[in-house]
Amino acid sequence: MTLKVSDLAVARGGAPVLEGLSFDVAAGCALVVRGPNGIGKTTLLRTLAGLQPAIAGTIDFPEDTAAYASHADGIKAQLTVVENLAFWADVHGAELPDAVFEAFDLVDLRDRFAGTLSAGQKRRLGLARLGVIGRDVLFLDEPTVSLDGFSVKMFANWLRDVHLARGGIAVIATHIDLGLDAPELDLTPFKAAPDAAGGSDEAFL
Amino acid sequence: MNLDFWSSFKDFIYEIYPPFWDAVVAFLGKYAVEVLSAYFASIILLVVIVVMSIRRSRRVRAQLTAVEARKDKS
Amino acid sequence: MSIWEYANPKKFITTTTPIVPWVLGLSIALLVVGLTWGFFFTPDDFRQGSTVKIIYLHVPAALMAINAWFVMLIASLIWLVRRHHVSALAARAAAPVGIVMTLIALITGAIWGQPMWGTWWAWDPRLTSFLILFLFYLGYMALWEAIEDSDTAADLTSVLCIVGSVFAVLSRYAVNFWNQGLHQGTTVPVATGERSISDIFFVPLVMCMVGFGLLFLALVLMRTATEIRARRIKALEARMRG
Amino acid sequence: MIALLKRDLALAVRAGGGFGLGLAFFLIVIVLVPLGVGPEAALLTLIAPGMLWVAALLAALLSLDRIFALDFEDGSLPLLATSPLPLEGVALMKGVAHWATTGLPLTLAAPALGFLLNLSSTAYVWLFVSLAIGTPALSMIGTFGAALTVGLRRGGLLMSLLVLPLYVPTLIFGAEAVRRGADGLSTTTPLLMLAGITLGSFALLPFAASAALRVNLR
Questions:
Q1: Which has the closest alpha carbon to C17: B69, B72, B54, B48?
Q2: Portion of chain B with pLDDT greater than 90, in percent
Q3: Across residues C118-136, what is the average pLDDT?
Q4: End-to-end distance of chain D based on CA atoms, in angstroms?
Q5: How high is the pLDDT of residue D203?
Q6: Which residues on chain A are in Cβ contact (under 8 Å) with D83?
Q7: The complex's ipTM?
């Protein structure tokens, strides 16, 4: 099981942003995506996750194994931590493992309403969802925002010891060092040329 | 719009220039004002849509040449 | 040279720009001749008196109001299937023309019916379905204005047009079911071809219909070209900013 | 998909006042009608079927834009889109959840409020039957409207403009069924048409709604 991306081009709002992007991520490996703000990290991850169509190139990995996590954690404030995770477990037809609460330090928050959590705790709950749904290919958009140093280390450990060890794949767009010995991909060279073809505006230029 | 307003309106425009209206009523019968107002309203609407379309077309064309000029310069 | 050739915006503009003035001129000429002929040289109806002359505006406008929505439906389908920007922009261009045609049909219908029905608005089923069509047009145009990104707008309005068409036809029959009907029979039933009006009325009527049709065509071509140019301005500005 | 339905119902009950919101609005509109139109019983009886249906329609419209807006703001819509659930299933469940929180309580409460408008005695059962058949269509059409305008600024207002014309057939057949019931005529044809619209909406509109969602998620 590998993630193969060949000659990928993505667009944002009708204008091409990245082009000629090719990389492979083998099972059990992660890939850290770097680049200045606005280069198209989020657009790339949304295209990989299938939320928006690519304008060129191919993305292939086993069907129905992708999961996407962005700045917004998709947490319902009126549900408790357990109910939030139980919902995502039901949606993905998986069981709610207790280990995930230790892995994300949510044990003592089990029955708290998500609305009463701090930003960091909400973030951990959002990431805990990844542990619950059991998806192999993860596309994470700055997962460690609003997390303190200890939580970042905890998340990195979970990623390395649980997810990658199980043969999972992760593509992470982040600015900080996760301490994973994962290859890094800088998107700057793949910035689309101003007159790149393929964007929906192209017919009008 | 109840009917008596309409009949008072008809009397009002009748006083504007009676001989003209006598000829019109002679030609169109008692529904002269209705027919004329229908034609008047429709033609006004047609003229509005045509004029608006033409004006917008001209305005956008001018903007486009301006933008293209700016593009060629830069 | 398949007709998809015209899907290219630049080619569309180069081909249509010269012919629009001609089509517009021809349609205005046809309308002037048709309307004056119908207005001055046709006798009054023994029952309705001179109000029958409103037929030359009401029937063609009503016909074009429905055809305009149909054109928008076809253009939306073409956009969803083949992703040609010209058809999406043509759908957007046709809506204002369609709404004006609907308005004309409503006003002339109300004025025409007023002497017989005794009130300005007698909720006659056919006129009511035009009122509902007017609301559909309003919603369609509002959705176009509400969205910045042109492609998203084109997709959403196409879906709305398709669903709206189904419900417009449903409303058409629901309204018939709801109120027996004061409207006179169809003057020119396209399906059966026989017509309930004598020849002297018929020729100017057809002329007015063709006139309205050409006017619609000219306006849609002109407005589509304008939409293409507006889209080009946005694209160029985005490029220069980018 | 049932999980999504259960979660939405739980959320509606805990946060949004759930079943009460649509019901309260329905009651208020019904009370306003005689205040506006005047207390003559004969007149109220005449307009009762239509007004009950219009009030039900407005109550359904009221809570439509929250269907997707909440999930869009807190980011769970993209997560649902990348989950094994088909988006059509998500749209369908959202429609059912909206019906359960607004349509169902309306259908149960409407006969109890009919007497406020002096509804004729034979019409109560038909009011219940027509609402039971018709309100699901209101919810599903509304879900489509909500999917179209999710993420747009001032989407709520725009959605009402888009959805109300789509409600016309349901309103006509629903009110007609109740009126015929009141006059003792046979109500089979309007009810059949109403059922046709509801079934058609549930069969086709989830696909249109999910297409709109996919576009809005881009």
A1: B54
A2: 39
A3: 87
A4: 23
A5: 94
A6: 88, 91-92, 133
A7: 0.90
Contacts of C139 in chain D (CB under 8 A): 161-162, 165
Give, rounded to a whole angstrom, the gap between the first and last alpha carbons of chain B. 60
Q: How far apart are CA A9 and CA A20, in angstroms?
A: 6
Q: How many domains, in total, are found in chain B?
A: 1
Residue C77 lies in a domain: yes
Q: What is the rounded average pLDDT of the residues D196-201? A: 95
- C158 or C235, which is more confident? C158
pLDDT at B74: 73
Residue C47 lies in a domain: no
Nearest CA in chain D to C164: D166
| Residue C73 located in a structural domain | yes
Least confident of A49-63, A155-169, B1-15, C76-90: B1-15
Whether B53 and C222 lie within 8 Å, measured CB to CB: yes
Please check whether residue C187 is in contact with residue C197, taking contact to mean a CB–CB distance below 8 angstroms.
yes
Residue C238 with chain A: CB contacts under 8 Å? 13-15, 201
> CA dist B32 to B2, B35, C112, Å?
18, 5, 11
Residues 6+ apart with CB under 8 A from C138: C99, D161
Average pLDDT, rounded, for chain A: 84
- Look at D117 and C46; give whichever has higher pLDDT: D117
Tokens standing for A1?
Answer: 């099981």
- What are the residues of chain A with a beta carbon less than 8 Å away from any beta carbon of chain D? 46, 49-53, 64, 66-79, 83, 87-88, 90-93, 129, 133
Residues 6+ apart with CB under 8 A from C8: A203, C86
Q: How far apart are CA B32 and CA B30, in angstroms?
A: 6
> How many other C-beta atoms are found inside a 10 Å radius of the C-beta of residue D106?
26
Q: Fill in the amino acid letter for D61.
A: L
Q: DSSP readout, A60-109? A: E--TT-EEEE-SS----TTSBHHHHHHHHHHHTT----THHHHHTT-GGG
Does C119 map to a domain? yes
pLDDT in tens, A69-126: 888 888 888 888 888 888 888 888 888 888 888 888 888 888 888 888 888 888 888 8
Report DSSP letters for D163-207, one per residue. HHHHHHHHHHHHHHHHHHHHHT---HHHHHHHHHHHHHHHHHHHH
Give the pLDDT band of residue C40 (cuts 50, 70, 90): confident
pLDDT tens for C158-201 read 999 999 999 999 998 898 888 764 455 555 544 444 456 666 77
Domain range for D22: 2-216
Nearest to C178 among D148, D172, D216 (CB): D172
The two tokens of residue C202 are 């018929």
Per-residue confidence (pLDDT) for residue C190, from 0 to 100:
45
Q: What is the largest CA-CA distance in chain C?
A: 70
CA-based nearest residue in chain B for residue C50: B28
**Which domains are delineated in chain A?**
28-52+61-187 (3.40.50.300)
**Of chain D residues 71-100, which have a CB less than 8 A from chain A?**
71, 73-85
Confidence of residue C98 (pLDDT cuts 50, 70, 90): very high
Q: Does residue C228 carry a pLDDT above 70?
A: yes
Please provide the size of chain B in residues: 74
Do the beta carbons of residue C100 and residue B23 sit within 8 Å? no
Any idea what the Cα angle at residue A202 is, between residues A201 and A205, rounded to 5°? Answer: 95
Distances (CA, A) of B33 to B11, C95, D131, D171, D201: 10, 31, 47, 38, 47
| Tokens coding D142 | 């509304």
How many B/C residue pairs have CB atoms within 8 Å? 101
User: Which domain does B10 fall in, by range?
Assistant: 3-73
Split at pLDDT 50, 70, 90, the class of C2 is: low
Residue linked to tokens 């079911």: C177
Question: Does the beta-carbon distance from A13 to C149 stay under 8 Å?
Answer: yes
